[in-house]
User: Fold this.
Amino acid sequence: MKHALLIQSVIEILGAMALFMSPNLFFLEEYNNTSANLIKMIAIMALCIGALSVVLWRHFEYKTQYKQAYLVFMGYQAFSSFHLYALFNIGLTNQAGPFITHVLLFVLLFIFYMRDINKKE
Assistant:
C-alpha cells in the first residue's frame, strides 16, 4: 500500500502542476475567466491530495487510521474518474487521458489494498 501512495502522489502532483500551468491541455479552450479560476482551484486541490499522499506515504503504518485514509484516497480516485468520464462524454474535455489516469490510479490503489488488507506491521 505504501508504494501505491508514492505512485499516486507523484502522478497527482505532476498532473496538478500541468493543469495549473496549462488548463487547455485538458479542457477545451472555450472557457472564461471564471472557468479558468475554477480549473486552477481544482489543480490546487489535486496538489493538496498529492501532498497529503506524500505525508501518508512517509509515515505509513498498517494501522486502522492509515487504512481508512488510504480508502479515502481510493474514493477520491473513483469519484474523480466518474466525473472526468462525464466531462469527456459531454464534450467539456478534449481528451480521455485524465479519466484513464484516475481509473488506473484507482485500480492500482485497489490492488495494493486487497493485497495488504490483513497485513500488520
About this structure: The chain has a mean pLDDT of 88. The chain is about 75% helix and 0% strand. The radius of gyration is 15 Å.
